[in-house]
Amino acid sequence: MYEALRYERAAVLGGQPWRLLSAHAVHLGWGHCLMNAGGLALCAAFAAGTRSWRAWATAIVVLALGVGILLVAASPQATNYAGLSGVLYGLFIWVLAPRAWRGDRVALIVLVAVLARIGWQMFHPTSEAQRVLIGGDVMVEAHLYGALCALALCLWQEVWPHLRRA
Which GO terms describe its molecular function (predicted)? Predict the structure, then answer.
């Protein structure tokens, strides 16, 4: 099942576009899956009562497609990917950015920490301990693409209501 669902660049380009979404549902191992599940629970705790289930579902699909499409378009060296972390980084930004923009200091601090983590990952290779824990290398590009897609989604959600009124 993992082999049929993970992101494989050649398979996507060969006519298997579902992998752009399904790759985010499969993981390299149980450690990887549990880390992503813990991150998702933490993100949901930050968002408690602020977003509907419909908004969550939409954000997850938009972020998953965005990460997948950017992997194909901008990262030809990314040949294999599995896991929720790209979407998860995006979800953190999607939840935290609007709160930070409205003056929530805790949201701002956590948002800065998430962005700093992505920046740090871009210049430091995956440690051996982390590689063993998740069962492979971290694909930092997916984290970056999730963050960029989340920022675009936040801006769209802030601008769209104003455009509809005009």
Answer: serine-type endopeptidase activity
